[in-house]
Amino acid sequence: MVHELADYERAPEQCHLTEEQLATALFGPSPALFGHVAVDDADEPIGFALWFLNFSTWEGVHGIYLEDLYVRPTARGTGAGRLLLATLAAICVERGYRRLDWWMLNWNPAARFYAAIGATPMDEWVPYRLAGPALHELAAQVPAAPHAAGRLTG
């Protein structure tokens, strides 16, 4: 279904996830990714949520970052998406996490659904990403950084 999501988001060529990678991320020796799958009455998967923990230095507690939420088109409007989000909200409440965050493409009609459950867009924050050659160039500066800016511990 991850590849179905990539198609929906108009970026199938950017999705390189394999079944093995996903299994390792979810069930490997040190999983840092968590997931839930919604199924229909015949136990067929109809949606999923993949998430990980984040941390708010202002709140002093963890939260959940929802990386991906997807419900198959034939199952939209059935409550599967609401159930997946409600499950994550319940985990937050149970564990004392103060927030559930996610990003959404600006053209996604799910904005109406998110507003209906009380989610609010955070348009004052600007997303940044460091990847590819720029990521590698910055990483290569680590040996020089302790001399220029002190030293790191930990």
**Gap between N and C termini, in Å?**
38 Å
User: What is the C-alpha radius of gyration, as a whole number of Å?
Assistant: 18 Å
Q: Which spans of ≥5 residues are poorly predicted at pLDDT below 50? A: none
- The percent range for strand residues is 15-25%
Rounded mean pLDDT is 93
Bin the helical content.
25-40%
Number of helices: 6
Helical/strand content category: alpha+beta
Placed side by side, the strands forming the largest sheet appear as 1-2-3-4
Element-by-element helix/strand order: HHEEEHEHHH
Overview of the structural elements:
With 154 residues, the chain is of the alpha+beta class. It starts with a helix and ends in a 5-residue tail after the last helix. It contains six helices and four strands. A four-stranded mixed β-sheet has the order 1-2-3-4, covered by helices on one side.
Output the keywords.
154 residues, 4-stranded mixed sheet, 21% strand, alpha+beta
Topology:
Layout: H1 2-8, H2 19-27, E1 34-39, E2 45-56, E3 61-71, H3 80-95, E4 100-102, H4 110-116, H5 132-139, H6 145-149
Parallel strand pairs: 3-4
Antiparallel strand pairs: 1-2, 2-3
Question: In short, what is this structure?
Answer:
With 154 residues, the protein is an alpha+beta fold. It has helices at residues 2-8, 19-27, 80-95, 110-116, 132-139, 145-149; strands at 34-39, 45-56, 61-71, 100-102.
